[in-house]
Amino acid sequence: MAKVPKIKLLNIKKIILAAWPFLLAVLVYMGIRIAIHHSTLVESIYSERIYPILAATFSFLSHFIPFSLWDIFWVSAILAIIAALILVILKKINFGLYLLRVLQLVALLYSFFYISWGYNYFRPNIEKRLKWETPPADEKSFRSVLDTLIDETNKNYTSFTSVDYPELNKLVEESYRRNAHELDISYPNGTRRPKTMIFSSFFAKVGVSGYFGPFFNEIHLNSYNLPMDYPFVLAHEKAHQFGFTSESEANLVAFVICTKSEDQRVRYSGFQSLLLYFLRDASRMKDYKNFISKIDTVVIKDFHMRQKYYQALENKSLSRVQTKANDIYLKANKIDKGVKNYNQVVSLVTDWYYNTVMKKAKN
Questions:
Q1: At what angle do helices 165-179 and 264-282 cross, to 10 degrees?
Q2: Is residue 74 part of a domain?
Q3: With bands split at pLDDT 50, 70 and 90, how would you rate the model's confidence at 331?
């Protein structure tokens, strides 16, 4: 039997080592094209079986580290790319090899993003998963929910500080445990340790209060968040960890989890956060001022303080760039409304009230 020359074997090995990240990316892309048209398959195979195992594994490993592994990784990667580019300019490294390594890194990040979490983008929406009925599209339902939010925000008003954060995290987690079934959540789905953004100051300038890092299954919160926002933002990012990719769905989950908490501080954070979304939509109504007049003075003061605080932190130019980038990212992942998806929580909360409160009251 003729032997394969060693030189050919080495060349084949080199080609395989160079090509496998791109082959993996192609397979992941093909999986995305299938997932787009088979959402129930995504739900039954990936979201309900594969993702919970990945989430439990990665979150278990990363929760031992008190700081953000993703922040460290992306900064290190950028510095390594810049350092290698300098070596290319100095002709210490071949440009072709440099370009290959950068493209391999991009291909691997693309693949790992969807494998570790991103396929959840293609699961059925929460209305289908919870088998909700669609309420009549009338202004009456909106007004009813808005009045409820105003009453509950007034009733639950309280103040607290960042000293309460560890306790609030436990309370939010406990609410998830108790209410997981109502939202079709596979609890515990791993470990959720809140981590502070290493670059909180920069993210505060672009208006980012928190984000979920799928690569290490980490929850990140901005250290510049006001205490009144902390429980809601925390619950929102935990919702992403549970596989809710839509921003409006994560907002809905955060609202339900916060407002069903046994703690007044957590409930206030949930009600006042959603009241702001509803007021934004109500601002186009002729009797908008009538709704404002129903809100207690202490709550109005909170809203004014909140507005001034975040406006002082914001860099409008950077914020516009971040908003545009986020809009492109969301639309690329089949969130058709882009950044407007955040405010779609208004219709989701109205649907939730209709299916869990109004229908029961009628019966």
A1: 80
A2: yes
A3: confident
Angle, helices 264-282 vs 345-353, to 10°: value is: 120
122, 152, 182 — which closes off a domain? 122
> Angle at the Cα of 340 (from 337 to 346), degrees rounded to 5?
110
Bridge partner list, 212 = 219
Same domain, 118 and 132: no
Confidence of residue 315 (pLDDT cuts 50, 70, 90): very high
Q: How far apart are CA 254 and CA 231, in angstroms?
A: 8
Determine the Cα–Cα distance for residues 318 and 41; give it in Å rounded to an integer. 39
Q: How far apart are CA 144 and CA 154, in angstroms?
A: 16
- How far apart, in Å, do the first and last CA atoms of the chain sit? 82
Domain span at residue 94?
Answer: 6-122
Q: What is the DSSP string of 39-79?
A: HHHIIIIIIIIIHHHHHHHHHHHHTTSSS-HHHHHHHHHHH
Residue 1 within any structural domain of the chain: no
Tokens of 188: 């515990």
Residues 81 and 155 occupy one common structural domain: no
Q: Does 153 lie in the same domain as 102?
A: no
Is 78 found in the same domain as 21?
Answer: yes
Q: What is the pTM of this model?
A: 0.93
Structure confidence at residue 340 (pLDDT): 65
Beta bridge mates, 213: 218
